[in-house]
Design goal:
Number of strands: 9
Distance between the termini: 42 Å
Largest sheet: 9 strands, mixed
Order of helices and strands: HHHEEHEEHEHEHEHHHHEHEH
Radius of gyration: 19 Å
Strand order of the largest sheet: 1-2-3-5-4-6-7-8-9
Shape: globular
Number of helices: 13
Length: about 350
């Protein structure tokens, strides 16, 4: 291991240890969240059948018509903080606070290019605002979505978004479906405002959600993804920041079962759809990432190439957290901005 890799990995571990609110929650099948019974006698058989049916009708599972109650509220702390868009999620969870979607709106122009930004898991309300403002300076309007169970959508009694990535199989499926559908609602609202050149930018789990939304949206011209992987379950099983989630799963399901059950919320099964919509794609990954292992990024790049789906990859000698630091943040931010500027011109 070289000195730079050693330094990066020490930093990544140090950042990971600063969060002391990770809990190993109990395993649950959660089939009631995907149309099954809470006490299903054969949960494995149910899920195996359900996965096949859901993948075959993913257009229906991720369908999103425009919301009936879009409301754009004034900025909370001055114009630079962005207006707040609210609407009711089409996917209803048991937590009312989670069902009111919030997104921060940063208009650059009244028409032209616009991007939906999906932040990382457990991002704060003010996370990635500098990225939004950077895109604004390039003339790109931004709608930054607060994802399910995050910040003001957080479920009572939870400090983290445990439902979006957790040891409840069905709830994790429902929460990620909700994130995709909420994203598509954002596209519908932007179209209503006159924005027709649409893109999406996702970070970490936001990357996974963004890629699925893009695969189901013919109107999206470009997708930029910070940290990429093939299968949702593989990241949860091997990632440093999700080790507590895997701890709650490992005694009940093996890695092949989990990959199968969470396939509908993984990017891989929808890649062939991109051959028809042909969006422009940029992927940014860290070679020393202990959360999204680089081997998964390599697998995604290789899979896209095998499917003859054009995609650009930027690989930096950093990790998951350290991508936001100098000097790595500069080439990543510059390339992201120029990529979206050119793709949506």
């Amino acid at each position: 291991m070289g000195w730079l890799e050693h330094k990066i990995r020490r930093y990544e571990h140090a950042r990971w240890t600063t969060d002391d609110n990770r809990r190993v929650l109990p395993f649950e099948w959660g089939l009631e969240f995907v149309g099954g019974l809470r006490d299903e006698p054969d949960p494995r058989g149910f899920l195996d059948s359900w996965v096949g049916e859901t993948l075959a009708r993913s257009d229906e599972w991720f369908a999103a018509t425009p919301a009936a109650d879009y409301v754009l509220h004034p900025p909370e702390n001055g114009a630079s903080s962005g207006c707040v868009l609210t609407f009711t999620s089409q996917v209803e969870s048991p937590w009312p606070e989670n069902n009111l979607v919030r997104a921060r709106f940063f208009p650059a122009r009244s028409t032209g290019p616009a991007v939906v930004v999906l932040p990382n898991w457990n991002a704060k309300w003010d996370g990635q605002l500098n990225l939004c403002r950077w895109l604004n300076r390039l003339g790109i309007t931004v709608l930054r979505l607060s994802m399910p169970y995050h910040d003001r959508r957080r479920a009572d009694g939870h400090e983290r978004a445990d439902q979006l990535v957790g040891p409840n199989i069905g709830l994790t499926l429902q929460a990620n479906r909700q994130a995709v559908v909420d994203t598509r609602h954002c596209f519908r609202w932007l179209e209503q405002q006159g924005y027709t050149r649409l893109g999406v930018l996702g970070t970490s789990i936001g990357s996974s959600i963004a890629s699925i939304a893009m695969a189901h949206e013919a109107s999206v011209r470009a997708g930029a993804f910070l940290h990429v992987s093939t299968y949702f379950a593989d990241v949860v099983r091997t990632g440093m920041t999700t080790s507590h989630v895997w701890e709650g799963l490992r005694a009940k399901v093996n890695e092949n079962e989990l990959r199968r059950y969470w396939t509908p919320i993984s990017p891989v099964p929808y890649l062939d759809r991109l051959r028809h919509t042909r969006p422009q794609i940029l992927m940014v990954s860290g070679r020393y990432d202990p959360t999204f292992l680089y081997e998964f990024s390599e697998d995604m790049i290789r899979t896209l190439k095998e499917k003859q789906i054009p995609a650009e990859a930027l690989i930096l000698p950093c990790g998951h957290y350290s991508l936001e630091l100098a000097p790595f943040a500069f080439p990543a931010g510059l390339r992201l901005g120029l990529f979206l500027f050119e793709a949506l011109a």
